[in-house]
Amino acid sequence: MNNDGHKLAVLTYPNYYGETFNVEEVIKSLHQLNIPVLIDEAHGAHFGLQGFPDSTLNYQADYVVQSFHKTLPALTMGSVLYIHKNAPYRENIIEYLSYFQTSSPSYLIMASLESAAQFYKTYDSTVFFDKRAQLIECLEKKGLKCFKLMIR
């Protein structure tokens, strides 16, 4: 397999339903072909916490976009773009971002991103899974069937 002039691979991880795949191997394979990788990790900002899959930030993806507001306590539209220090086009992206960014940013959203990042750093996953177990037990007592979390 060769590059055939491809400039960038864009992957969604996880998908909208939370499903994952062996993204580490895909990133490695694309990098062997000298194809940079952008990961749309919009629904995976919580990845990397105990009990969840690793974030693609751990797999040398060149660019990772996370929507903190979807799975972390941030205001709507609170999203971040991570650019790996060795990513190609790094300087171009930083320059182009300045063309699209507003001169009137929302300081509330920026503060909520900082707060969400702190929440992530200090989060205790056991609290989440304890509450989840209590909810499942309550729902099952009412006759509802619950799907179990499966991590590969």
Automatic annotation (TrEMBL):
InterPro entries, alphabetized: Orn/Lys/Arg_deCO2ase_major_dom, Orn_Lys_Arg_decarboxylase-I, PyrdxlP-dep_Trfase, PyrdxlP-dep_Trfase_major
Cofactor(s) the protein needs: pyridoxal 5'-phosphate
Claim: Chloroplast is one of the keywords in the record: no
Domain Orn/Lys/Arg decarboxylases family 1 pyridoxal-P attachment site residue range list: 5-122
Name of the coding gene: speA_2
EC number: 4.1.1.19
Entry keyword set: Lyase, Pyridoxal phosphate
Cited Pfam families: OKR_DC_1
Organism: Staphylococcus aureus
GO molecular function: arginine decarboxylase activity
UniProt KW Nucleotidyltransferase keyword: no
Protein name in the entry: Arginine decarboxylase / Lysine decarboxylase
